[in-house]
Design goal:
By secondary structure, the chain is α/β, with parallel strands linked by helices. The protein contains 3 helices and 7 strands. It is 28% helix and 23% strand. The strands form 3 sheets. It has a 3-stranded parallel beta sheet with strand order 1-2-5, with helices on one face. Strands 3-4 form a two-stranded antiparallel ribbon. Strands 6-7 form a two-stranded antiparallel ribbon. The longest helix is centred in the first third of the chain and has 12 residues.
Length: 95
């Protein structure tokens, strides 16, 4: 991840699959904080009931992941909600 995603591609916006069979929250946070180091993260495919009324629920794997990510915003991908990002990975609409 560090060599290909960060060093070679210089990714500033990461979309990370946090499904139960994909990657544990601790490993995902390590990948973001230490290996990839993007400007912004969009978390997707949680395979759990993550939100109520579009708000993050406590005691979820997603909440655990978001709490462990440091120094960058993490956005939830929500059904029917479109987000737009500029070339610097700053969310400019739908955030």
């Amino acid at each position: 991840m560090k060599t290909v995603v960060r060093d070679f591609h210089k990714v500033n916006l990461a979309v990370l699959n946090l499904g139960q069979n994909a990657i544990p929250p601790e490993a995902a946070a390590f990948a973001i904080n230490e290996l990839i180091q993007p400007t912004t993260v969009v978390a997707s495919h949680p395979n759990e009931w993550v939100t109520t009324g579009g708000k993050l629920r406590p005691n979820t794997r997603m909440k655990m992941f978001i709490d462990m990510v440091k120094g960058r915003p993490v956005y939830l991908s929500l059904s029917g909600k479109t987000m737009e990002f500029d070339g610097s990975a700053k969310c400019v609409a739908g955030c």
